[in-house]
């Protein structure tokens, strides 16, 4: 048997529990992964709540991001073999011990040498969203970019990618996360009342572009501050809001197949740092979700599934 994070009706965090489920059979073209780390995203909580993310009518898994070890491969799979260290994403299923990947060519990559298996387990949603966002921003060297939620899973990658492109980056976060942003070359400001006065104090000559992780109020604040609509990219507002104000949406749907490989290598080479705020054992799943939503974590929150220790060869590959 395997264990997975499960809920049987939409609601809040207390719906989540670990359930025993059969180990899936591996069919032709499929790959079975023993998951070691599964990253949490606000999306997982939104899916649990239901609403525009759909209503569950029977037991459902949760989570998208994962990393682990290939346990077995189906007939015809040539690109992966048992023992490979892998990472990827599979919506509403990843928080499980044994994860069946039906379409490995689309969803699975080998972990590059030097990328930690824990970091790899929290990259799929935030990482791909961030890379898509930076493409949409079209930054030039010397631009000043404002990033909201710069201490969050997405914002912390966007901010560093922008710095690497030669932009000056001002990022909003709660005060407890300012030192982290400082250490990454991002100028921190506290969000909330008076935000734009604080941004103006840092950038009296203005800000050329903005990345918005929040809703409509944040977008109107950016426009009032003088940032052109054509240079604002949002992942927090829906299409109606974006259309109303003429800003772009560049969510995960705009990511490309090779974005994970590219980002994984950038992290492995030390060009981007993705901090891990806290790792919870899988049976602490409710605490993990609460931590994500209420503790202002500095980086990613991960679930860890117990599994056999890695072999010496696997460890050597990761270091
Ligand atoms: N459209 C898409 O495809 C897509 C993809 C990924 C994410 N998203 C959405 O984008 C948002 C951010 O995702 P994430 O993974 O980065 O989340 P996260 O890791 O939970 O980070 C949230 C960030 O928002 C900041 N924050 C909290 N309250 C804020 C406020 N009132 N004003 C400004 N910033 C605030 C947090 O700062 P502190 O922790 O320092 O307080 C933190 O930096 C979520 O709503 C998520 O669902 C959308």
From TrEMBL:
<dbReference type="InterPro" id="IPR020843">
    <property type="entry name" value="ER"/>
</dbReference>
<protein>
    <submittedName>
        <fullName>NADP-dependent oxidoreductase</fullName>
    </submittedName>
</protein>
<dbReference type="Pfam" id="PF00107">
    <property type="entry name" value="ADH_zinc_N"/>
</dbReference>
<dbReference type="InterPro" id="IPR051397">
    <property type="entry name" value="Zn-ADH-like_protein"/>
</dbReference>
<dbReference type="Pfam" id="PF08240">
    <property type="entry name" value="ADH_N"/>
</dbReference>
<dbReference type="InterPro" id="IPR013149">
    <property type="entry name" value="ADH-like_C"/>
</dbReference>
<dbReference type="InterPro" id="IPR011032">
    <property type="entry name" value="GroES-like_sf"/>
</dbReference>
<dbReference type="InterPro" id="IPR036291">
    <property type="entry name" value="NAD(P)-bd_dom_sf"/>
</dbReference>
<feature type="domain" description="Enoyl reductase (ER)">
    <location>
        <begin position="11"/>
        <end position="303"/>
    </location>
</feature>
<dbReference type="InterPro" id="IPR013154">
    <property type="entry name" value="ADH-like_N"/>
</dbReference>
